[in-house]
Amino acid sequence: MSVWSLCEHHMLPMNLQVTAGYVPNGEVVGLSKFGRIAQHFAGRLQVQERFTRQVAEYLGGVIGHEDVAVAVRGVHLCMSMRGVRMEEARTTTVHSGGRFGTDLVLSQQFLALTTGLWGAP
Predict the structure, then answer these.
(1) Among 36, 95, 93, which residue's Cα sits nearest to residue 62?
(2) What is the rounded CA–CA span in Å between residue 73 and residue 93?
(3) What's the pLDDT tens digit per position in 8-52?
(4) Which of these, 95, 88, 96, lies nearest to 118 by C-alpha position?
(5) How many Å apart are CA 48 and CA 115, to the nearest integer?
(6) Bridge partners of 2?
(7) DSSP secondary-structure letter at 81?
(8) H helix or E strand, kind and range, residue 75
(9) Which terminus of the chain, N or C, has fewer Cβ atoms within 10 Å?
(10) What per-residue confidence (pLDDT) applies to 77?
(11) pLDDT at 39
């Protein structure tokens, strides 16, 4: 998922690529729910770290347990168009809970899928 938000430090846009994973426990979440959650939290002044945590915690509430992982890769225009002017700079944040925090294999699978989607090494 891709959402736009405004950095609360610089009041400049940031594009956030959001990847979410969860362990279903009998019931699955409709795909549009992920987009709505991300858009909801992107619709306010943000920092990427808080956005990542908010999406993960809210998703945990929706599914009823903490077996959730959210990774966000951001392009911050404050880095791209002003200051250091690093157009290729990306920032990655991850929030893992429940089994994603305790099961090394599950965590590695999520990170491998995430970095594969982003084309990162």
Answers:
(1) 36
(2) 7
(3) 988 889 999 999 999 988 878 888 999 999 999 999 999 999 999
(4) 88
(5) 17
(6) 17
(7) T
(8) strand 68-76
(9) C
(10) 85
(11) 97
HEC string of the chain? CEEEEEECCCCCEEEEEEEEEECCCCCCCCHHHHHHHHHHHHCCEECHHHHHHHHHHHHHHHHCCCCEEEEEEEEEHHHHCCCCCCCCCCEEEEEECCHHHHCHHHHHHHHHHHHHHHCCC
Radius of gyration of the chain (CA): 15
Share of the chain above pLDDT 90, in %: 68
Which of 66, 59, 15, 13 minimizes the C-alpha distance to 37? 59
Q: How big, in percent rounded to 5, are the helix, strand and coil portions of the chain?
A: 40, 25, 30
Q: Are 103 and 94 in contact (CB under 8 A)?
A: no
The one-letter code for the residue type at 73 is: R
- Say how far residue 65 (Cα) sits from the centre of its chain: 18
pLDDT: which is higher, 63 or 118: 63
